[in-house]
Write a structure and sequence with these properties.
The protein has 77 residues and is mostly helical. 57% of the residues lie in helices and 0% in strands. It has four helices and no strands. The protein has helices at residues 2-11, 31-45, 56-59, 62-76. α1 (2-11) packs antiparallel against α2. The longest helix is centred in the middle third of the chain and has 15 residues, at 31-45. It starts with a helix and ends with a helix.
Length: 77
């Protein structure tokens, strides 16, 4: 989770990612930020994020993103 928070803070250092649950709903992460985030996550965690997973429910909070990462890692095993 710490690595994910570091990635998020590199993209938007002005956001409190530990407590924000409306990253998509409040347009805190725009489409370019999400593309950057996906690329960083795929590289860092050695996973592929399928298009079907690129949905607001998976990117609205750091916890939701982390849950998606863990789920995709389990699917790879």
């Amino acid at each position: 989770m710490e690595t994910l928070l570091e990635i998020l803070e590199d993209i938007r250092p002005d956001v409190d990612f530990k407590n924000c649950n409306t990253l998509i709903d409040d347009h805190i992460l725009d489409s370019l930020a999400i593309i950057s985030l996906i690329a960083e996550i795929e590289d860092e965690f050695d996973i592929t994020i399928p298009t079907v997973e690129i949905a607001p429910r998976n990117f609205n909070s750091a916890n939701a993103i982390w849950d998606m990462i863990k789920r995709l890692q389990e699917d790879d095993e």
